[in-house]
Specification:
Structural class: alpha+beta
Number of helices: 5
Strand order of the largest sheet: 4-5-6-7
Largest sheet: 4 strands, antiparallel
Distance between the termini: 19 Å
Shape: globular
Order of helices and strands: EHHEEHEEEEHH
Helix content: 40-55%
Number of strands: 7
Radius of gyration: 15 Å
Strand content: 25-35%
């Protein structure tokens, strides 16, 4: 079992100047300065825990990790604003989930992880686009859609 989700009501609203340039702002600014939210993570072996992160940065890390795992590799999701790290190691059809802040590992199925990342991406991008349609015109949105499409 794996849970990767976010609290839709906790997403920080962009400022007026941020909204004005939403369709053209650089990827690094979108990833690190926009849409901070509370994310929940749980897996077999550890209970749900929450933390605040910029959702697009976390999403990008998850997508890159899912692509690597699909290719038989391992993946890492790092947190720009802290030294926390999630490492996912392939063990046959299962993943071992290691968190830098807790020695208790978790696990889930590889396919299950990819489905969770796909759902998280669809939900996150969908919410942002519903609230801020101009985001669809940003090249970063198209890049994330492309990453996500590569998983199915």
């Amino acid at each position: 079992m794996i849970l990767v989700d976010f609290d839709r009501d906790s997403m920080r609203e962009p400022s007026a100047p941020q909204l004005e340039k939403l369709d053209s702002v650089a990827e690094w600014q979108l990833r690190y300065c926009y849409f901070e939210t509370t994310v929940a993570l749980a897996a077999d072996g550890f209970d749900a825990e929450t933390f605040r992160v910029p959702v697009l940065d976390f999403m990008c890390g998850l997508l890159l990790t899912a692509q690597s795992i699909r290719g038989g590799g391992k993946g890492r999701v790092s947190f720009t604003e802290s030294d926390m790290l999630i490492e996912l190691v392939t063990q046959g059809p299962e993943l071992k989930i290691l968190r830098s802040w807790d020695p208790v590992p978790g696990n889930c199925g590889t396919d299950e992880f990819v489905v969770a990342v796909t759902r998280f991406t669809d939900d996150g991008l969908g919410l942002i686009v519903d609230r801020y349609p101009a985001f669809q015109n940003n090249p970063t949105y198209l890049k994330l859609i492309d990453f996500r499409s590569g998983l199915v």
